[in-house]
C-alpha cells in the first residue's frame, strides 16, 4: 500500500476465528466541471460519518474544501484487500476518487467479491457532484484555449481566414441532415460548434471590441428570452403561426429596420437568396411584382419565388435533384466501364 505517512495505514484485519461486521466502502466520485466544494448532501453525510477518508491524489481539488470543513483525509492508495481489511469491525471507509476514477481498485474489489472467499463489506458508488447538461462545453472551451495558445496554425488564425470553413461546415451539416445520417449529423454539429468556439476565442484578443464565448452565449440566451414572451412573459401563442408572428414583431422592434430586405445576406446561394426575399415580402404582406427580364436568371428567380410560395425550399429541392443526377452519372460511368471491359475481353 502506498501512503504518505504511517497514519495512512488502514486498520488490520480481525484475528483468526473472529467474525467481523462487514463494514462499508463508499467510492465518492466528483466532476471537475463543477466548482470544488459543491458536493451533494448525501456526499457530505457520508464524509462526516466515515471512520476513514482516503484519497490517492494529494493534489485533488476537493481536498482543501474537505479539510476546511473538518474532514480528515489521508493520502493513500490501498489495494482492494487492504481496503476490505480497513472495514473490519463494521467501519466505514470513504474513498475520494481521482479524476480517472479508481479502475484498479474497483476491479480488485470485483475479483475479491467473485472469489467467494472474502466477507465483503457493503459497496456503494456515490456521485458527489454531477455534470449539468452542457457541461462538456466547458471542456471544449478549455481545449480551444490551449490550442489557440500552443498550436502554430491555430494561433495565427483570424475571423477572415476562418470564414470559408464556417460556410463549408454549414453545408456539410445540411448534407448530413438531408442524407439522414445520424453519425455524420453528430460529427458535423460538432464541427459547426467548433467554429463558434474558435471565433469566440479569437474575439477575446481584439484590442478594441473583445468578447468571449460567455458573451456570445449570454447574448443568444437574452435574445431567446425576449423573443419567447409566451414562455418567459405574459403573452400567449397557441399555434406555430402565432409564435412566428410574435418572433417577427419582437425582432422588428429590436432591429428598427427600414426595409424588409435588411439583414438578408446577399452572399448566400442565389436560389436561397431569392426564396428569402420572397419570404420577407410575403410575411410583410407586400404586393411586389417580379421584375421582367430575359435570361436564365429571371427564370430561376420566378421558380424560386414560386417554390417559396408553395412551401418548398428551392435550394433543398435542387440539391435533391442534383443527387439523383449524380447517381445517374455514376451509373453511366459503371455502364461504360462494363462495356469497355467486354470489348477488351472480345
TrEMBL record:
InterPro entries: 4pyrrol_Methylase_sf, MazG-like_dom, NTP-PPase_MazG-like_N, NTP_PyrPHydrolase_MazG. The keyword Nucleotide-binding does not apply. Its EC number is 3.6.1.9. GO terms for molecular function: nucleoside triphosphate diphosphatase activity. This is Nucleoside triphosphate pyrophosphohydrolase. It comes from Streptomyces nogalater. SUPFAM superfamilies: all-alpha NTP pyrophosphatases, Tetrapyrrole methylase. Pfam families: MazG (PF03819).
